[in-house]
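Worked example

This section walks through a single chain of length 618. The input is the sequence exactly as stored; nothing has been trimmed or padded.
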Amino acid sequence: MSRTVPARQRPTIVRRTWRAAFAAFALLAVAWSLAMPADGTTDERQHLERAYGAVTGRLAGPQGEDPLVHRPGAAFEVPKSLLPPNALCVYFPNVHQDQSWVARPASCQHPAPSTHAKTRVVSWVGRYNPLYYLAVGGPLRFWPDMTGIVLSRILAALLASAFAATAAAIAIRTRRPMLLAALLTVLTPTTIALNSTVNPNGIEISAALLLWVCLVDLARPGAAGRRLSPVPAAERGCGARLSRVGVLRQATIGADSEDRRSLGGLLRQATSAVPVVQAGPADRRSPAGLLRRAAFALAPAGPGASPSQLALLLLAAVSGAVVLTVRAEGPFWFALAVAGSLAVAEPGRIRELFRWRAARRVAAAWAVTAVLAVVWNVVSGNDKVTETLIAVHPADHRVGTLLRVVAVTRVGGWFSEAFALDVQASWVPMLWAALAAAVLVPVAVLRTRRVAVVALAVAAASLGITVVLEIKFLGTLGWSQYGRYFLPGLAGTAVLLASGPAGELPPVLRRRIPRLFALGAAFCQLWVLAVEMTRVQAGPDAPLNPLGGSWHPAAGSLTVLAVAALGAAALIALVWAATADTTATAATADTTATATAAVPAAATALAAPEAVPEPANS
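Given that input, the structure is written out below as tokens.
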């Protein structure tokens, strides 16, 4: 039998679940933040210069041209202490303008000048939307040196990890271990590395993951609701009345049939007949407490809107706004998430959602945010690219020929880079792909044809837009697309396949598959970090040794590995705890699914858990 959890303990358990997930993702990302030298990750120099300009008031710098590849961007005045003068000596360039230019250990970097005297730089991301850079670049204003870089990295890691942890907490609290494992398939070593640095691509992936989870659960509440544990008998008394959901449930008792059908009647009964215990000061200060109160404040959203669904709507609003604004492709990924979720919605669900006042407000806010994001891209010139030194002009530029070239020479590298950065070991991305298939294939065979087709269409659209952009910018930016760019879309495929019930899978598989993936994922995360540490400390051709080399991070290589090991252990412990009661709750969950198959999850949450006779004079 499943363990009975008193209603007043549920917020504490939710907070603990979120904190455990946050600790796992944040520790893994912070290890990367500490390990890398200045400009040690993808395009970090460009993003750091953009961030410093944003936090010092230069939201849109004058147009300029990057001297390295003649790529257009925006000019900023930054302190000379911000970056070493030859920071690029560490980074693997995609195209070698000079064959003698090869990547070397970070000891090749000259010390950055200690003076704060300004120098003019041109960042080719200088016309990106400044909101992300304002959020993470604050430390650079006060410490325009390696200290500020590391602090900004850690801030970026914490923000991105918060989105990923929230998505994982939803999967855990709704007892969907296969969904938790599917989320981890998107949190690849590449995603964690991007989360750890000043680069909006990382938070774009993590926010898209949360957006997909919220939208799919809102569109298909039955699929998520059937995995919820039933209300224990011990909680049907005063314990249930003390919770907000219990307030609404008890409000149905004692109201006439017409009044029970309106949410206003429910709230009148709740406020007049049922005492509500106020949250304590600690709960009011916690993010979970703020979210619960915000969701309950939106309760007059419309018929059938439960606080849990309103919380999903609130999370979707925030994550959707982030996806829309952080990168130029954001509106496409947002539209794909909305379209994919609507395509799998339960019959009548879309009409029901638009009866919620809160849903209409969120939709209007999204529309305004999308318009502003597009306007920024146009007005700032972020959508304009001229020919650069890395442009490619093939002799045969027919579309069919270019498609064959991309399919043969580029797509494989995209997936390898999406899974394991530029690690020169083909078995690492192959292992990640095999583990991901072990998670997604079993749940894919359980989905309806419509859900499976939509999931495949989302994957095809994600890969297709990358191919289109590759061909479009070939004559200006050269081979400019990477596998990390389509991860926000692949997040949708993973969520669509794994968000539904998996009761047909034997409980032993629902327990062992997520655990197997957690073990493999933890190993891959540590291996890729160790390889990258070896690269920056001893050079790309050095044998694997993350403790050796001529350069070491300020925190020490051993400290970095210890932080990463703690994160990997926390990840394994999180999945182990989430799957511990899979067998014990299987029978209970299946019974609940049978009893509520024809009832929306929101209505089930508001309904009385047992038959209660109405008073004679109601």
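What to look for: The chain has a mean pLDDT of 81.
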